[in-house]
Amino acid sequence: MEKSILTSIKKLLGLAEDYTNFDTDIIIHINSAIMILSQLGVGPQDEAFQITSKKDKWSDLIDEDDDLEAVKTYIYLKVKMVFDPPQHGPTENALKESIQEYEWRLCHQAEMNEKGV
């Protein structure tokens, strides 16, 4: 069964699917990360994409043929940095470096997909 974007990110954050107290906050942060991806050329470019609930699936955002699975990790890392930031400086720096690497790799993959490589 295909997972929803919200449910996946909540699981990675350590939140149960049925715990909905922070769903609005997490949705806002997910949509911010999706907007950044769109500006980087990753994901749907013809229209703005946003999630509104757990009904929104990963396949609504990315096509599995595009080899962009890292989008899931990238969105998680971006949400974590805002929703549950690390309290330890070196951990925060490591997350920021990971985010930057994912941005570069996702941009590169999107460009390759666009060229048909």
Shape: globular
Order of helices and strands: HHHHH
Low-pLDDT stretches are none
Give the integer mean of the pLDDT values.
92
Total helical elements: 5
Strand portion: under 5%
Query: Main β-sheet: number of strands, strand sense, barrel status?
Result: none
Write a structural description.
21% of the residues are buried. The protein has one domain (5-115). 60% of the residues lie in helices and 0% in strands. It is built from 5 helices and no strands. The longest helix has 27 residues, at 89-115. α2 (23-39) packs across α4 (70-83) and α4 runs antiparallel to α5. It is mostly helical and 117 residues long.
Q: In a few lines, what is going on in this structure?
A:
With 117 residues, the protein is an all-alpha fold.
Features:
about 120 residues; single chain
List the topology elements.
Layout lengths: L4 H8 L10 H17 L18 H4 L8 H14 L5 H27 L2
Helix pairs in contact: 1-2, 1-4, 2-4, 4-5
